[in-house]
Amino acid sequence: MTEHPPRSPFRAFEGTPPTPPPAELLARFASIVGARYALTSAQDRAPYEREWRDHFVGKAAMVLRPGTVQEVSEILKLANETRTSIIPQGGNTGLVGGQTPHETGHEIVVSLTRLDRIRDVDPIGHTMVAEAGVVLQTAQEAAERVDRFFPLSLAAEGSCTIGGVLSSNAGGVNAIVYGTARDLMLGLEVVLADGRIWSGLRRLKKDNTGYDLRHLFVGAEGTLGIITAAVLKLYPRPRMQVTAFAGLPSPAAALALMGRITGSVTGALTSFELLPRFSIETAVTYDPLTRDPFAIPHPWYVLMEVSAQSAQGLRDGLETVLTQAYELGLVADAAIAESLEQRNAFWRIREVIPEKQKLLGASIKHDVSVPVAHVPAFIAEASAAVTRLIPGCRPMPFGHLGDGNIHFNVSQPTDADGAAFMLRWDEVNALVHRIVLSHGGSISAEHGIGRLKRHLLPDVKDIVELDLMRSLKRMLDPNGILNPGKVL
Ligand SMILES: Cc1cc2nc3c(=O)[nH]c(=O)nc-3n(C[C@H](O)[C@H](O)[C@H](O)COP(=O)(O)OP(=O)(O)OC[C@H]3O[C@@H](n4cnc5c(N)ncnc54)[C@H](O)[C@@H]3O)c2cc1C
To answer: Whose Cα sits closest to atom 21 in ligand 1?
Structure first.
């Protein structure tokens, strides 16, 4: 991999800044959505110009909040004619800066949150048609009301939107069984850069009529079109879930335990989250509602959940596997949740970790994946390498072991200067990514490329693949108006 000079994760605008849209043009954009939904004052724009961690803070010429697909279409038509840059935005929870405008003040943010209708729920056909601005949790609840299950679940589900999770192809805690957002989508409605509306809201599991274009827009991070609605796949609601916490000696033991559960428990292993002791200590120290799961600390932990349509044998099956694993030395301690309250308490430990890690000071992050069998070696090699590079730094590798997806976060040494530590972001990234690539992994497992990892793409993508990506961008957005400076 190419070495990059040290930089902070927030990069200044690279390339030729677009010219500022004149006042007369801004007025034309405003007239599409009406003055109430065209936000121009600094105060009104502010929540759309920064993300919650303040890693990416930009400035927009205005924020438009269209209420219909037709309005989205008219906005893009005008933007395309006038070469105005458009930044699509959903719940603004993305972690790679894709949804925030650059600092030029020349781009227009198009927020999709007013497109928030669930158009249809079909429990027999197991589908839901949801508009882009529907909050993920609202979609989950709508499925639940008809006794169905929409499995996409992540800590930001109270704010992130269907358009956003599809555009970033979010994974979350159930991906081990149900796949990522891409796998949960049957059809899309998309407004193209020139304003044309592609009505691809098909509800078909089988449709072999040529190229399957819908997947181009999933994970495209708003660079190829604006998703306005989607047909989502629903599943039978698992009647029974058994959740357990285990303390273990190593990630290798966790992997062996996962294999044993998959092979012998009735039902599906729907979550398998690996957590180091350091992450449990962080959660317990900084979250007053979190308790240490065991009296004695263990080097590693797993939060696991198995789900099935019937309770029969599920709990006993998991208990048997955990007992066998204990006898084999794979598990040092284990507890099965006996109530919903205890299940929620287990999950709370996992969910507060990303937020509470901020209280340890600066941290350099990696959202990476390697083949599942390589996770233990990757964690060992990457932890050793970063501690050699920055003695005293505190690696916190946690995440979705079942998907080989580890959030390899590195907290600054205690009492070190946070800003100086962050200046080593690229150096640490390069080191960790080199190890990821040596294991045949990916430098962005879940969060995408956005602005944060754009400069890394040429180093990790096959040259032919990159060329095809650029050709697709030129074809679908020849004037480069959609989310410029992101991904490519
Ligand atoms: C606490 C927390 C936990 C998270 N956990 C996970 C996790 O477990 N797994 C995971 O995969 N991700 C996770 N994420 C990141 C995840 O990518 C986002 O939360 C979510 O997918 C983004 O949805 P959003 O509506 O907020 O989109 P935004 O942040 O608004 O946008 C994200 C990207 O999509 C584009 N976009 C948004 N809407 C549209 C649209 N309608 N059409 C075209 N482009 C659009 C934007 O331009 C941007 O590039 C987490 C984030 C947070 C804050």
So the answer is: 165
pLDDT tens, per residue, the chain with 488 residues: 333 333 445 555 565 556 789 999 999 999 999 999 999 999 999 999 999 888 899 999 999 999 999 999 999 999 999 999 999 999 999 999 999 999 999 999 999 999 999 999 999 999 999 999 999 999 999 999 999 999 999 989 999 999 999 999 999 889 999 999 999 999 999 999 999 999 999 999 999 999 999 999 999 999 999 999 999 999 999 989 999 999 999 999 999 999 999 888 888 899 999 999 999 999 999 999 999 999 999 999 999 999 988 888 899 999 999 999 999 999 999 999 999 999 999 999 999 998 899 999 999 999 999 999 999 999 999 999 999 999 999 999 999 998 999 999 999 999 999 999 999 999 999 999 999 999 999 999 999 999 999 999 998 999 999 999 999 999 999 999 999 999 99
| DSSP codes, 425-466 | HHHHHHHHHHHHHHTT-BS-SSS--TTTSGGGHHHHS-HHHH
Ligand 1, atom 50, residue with closest C-alpha = 156
Please give the number of the atom of ligand 1 that sits closest to the Cα of 225: 43
Question: Is the overall model pTM greater than 0.70, yes or no?
Answer: yes
**Residue identifier of the C-alpha nearest atom 33 of ligand 1:** 221
Q: Which of 76, 93, 138, 303 to mutate to test the pocket of ligand 1 (most atoms within 8 A of CB)?
A: 93
Q: Are 368 and 406 in contact (CB under 8 A)?
A: yes
Domain positions in the chain are 118-236, 240-356, 361-446
For the chain, first and last CA: distance in Å?
A: 18
Residue 164 CA to ligand 1 center (angstroms) comes to 5
Cβ contact 266:106 at 8 Å: no
Q: Which residue has the tokens 């890690």?
A: 357
The conformational region for residue 89 under phi > 0 = left, psi -120 to 50 = alpha, else beta, is beta
Q: Residue 355 CA: which ligand 1 atom is closest?
A: 1
Residue type, 62: M
Q: Among 1.10.760.10, 2.30.130.10, 3.40.640.10, 3.30.70.2740, name the CATH number for the domain at 361-446.
A: 3.30.70.2740
Residue 52 CA, closest ligand 1 atom number? 53
Q: What is the CATH code for 240-356?
A: 3.30.70.2190
